């Protein structure tokens, strides 16, 4: 469940669900974070609040074994406001789902990665970003506090996409990002084994009660 940063992971989740015969349901809406927090655009705030209510009602109806949540960061009134909004959503979702997992957002690049790679095909180091820059440490701290307070789990994909100090634009021959903040479908497919490992903690092999 989440916004476009949830949808970007669909190839990885789909491959895993098909492999294990799990039922997979994507509940998403562009621009709408999981966190119940106001956005700068009042219309988005209203639309996303209505979407979250419907999404939680759908989860209640399906009763999934595990619900994985992820989102981009949308600037709310404050970091503490973001955390409180996330806690409200986590509290509501854990009441109607099996296990709940907050999946951290992907590291963010500073440039449009495809454009950079096209411009520098023989010097891809020009398209790297420092890990400390790509990962929002304040956001990560708020996520950690929210899941601790609500008793849900958290997975961070940072190490899937970054080395110890830098995050590449290309892994092997795979373009990792399709812009500056969404991973490419090819990258999502490449990362399916990591998603599989994450889900196998919560779901038995060949279970039919899969993730949402």
> Share of helix among residues?
40-55%
CATH architecture of the domain at 4-105 and 136-157 and 188-200: 3-Layer(aba) Sandwich
Question: Alpha-carbon distance between the termini?
Answer: 7 Å
Structural class: mainly alpha
CATH class of the domain at 4-105 and 136-157 and 188-200: Alpha Beta
Radius of gyration: 17 Å
Number of helices: 10
H/E series: HHHEHEHEHHEHEEEHH
Read across the widest sheet, the strand sequence of neighbours is: 1-2-4
* Average of per-residue pLDDT values: 95
Say how many strands there are: 7
Largest sheet: 3 strands, parallel
Question: What spatial form do the alpha-carbon principal axes imply?
Answer: globular
CATH-assigned fold name of the domain at 4-105 and 136-157 and 188-200: Rossmann fold
What does this protein look like?
The chain is mainly α and about 210 residues long. About 45% of the residues lie in helices and about 10% in strands. The strands form three sheets. Strands 1-2-4 form a three-stranded parallel β-sheet, covered by helices on one side. A two-stranded antiparallel ribbon has the order 3-5. Strands 6-7 form a two-stranded antiparallel sheet. A hairpin with a 2-residue loop joins strand 6 and strand 7. The mean pLDDT is about 95. It holds the Pfam family SGNH.
């Amino acid at each position: 469940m989440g916004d476009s940063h949830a949808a970007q992971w669909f190839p990885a989740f789909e491959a895993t669900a098909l492999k294990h015969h799990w039922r997979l349901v994507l509940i998403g809406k562009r621009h709408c974070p999981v966190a119940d927090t106001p956005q700068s655009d009042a219309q988005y705030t209203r639309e996303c609040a209505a979407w979250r209510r419907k999404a939680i009602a759908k989860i209640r109806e399906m009763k999934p074994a595990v619900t994985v949540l992820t989102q981009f960061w949308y600037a709310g009134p404050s970091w503490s406001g973001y955390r409180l909004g996330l806690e409200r959503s986590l509290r509501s979702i854990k009441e109607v789902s099996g296990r709940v997992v907050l999946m951290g957002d992907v590291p963010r690049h500073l440039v449009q990665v495809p454009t950079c790679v096209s411009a520098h095909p023989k010097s891809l180091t020009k398209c790297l970003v420092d890990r400390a820059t790509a990962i929002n440490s304040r956001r990560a701290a708020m996520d950690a506090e929210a899941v601790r307070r609500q008793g849900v789990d958290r997975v961070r994909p940072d190490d899937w996409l970054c080395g110890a100090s830098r995050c590449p634009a290309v892994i092997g021959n795979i373009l990792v990002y399709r812009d500056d903040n969404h991973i490419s479908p090819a990258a999502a497919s490449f990362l399916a084994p990591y998603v599989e490992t994450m889900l196998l903690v919560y779901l038995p092999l060949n279970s039919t009660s899969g993730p949402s």
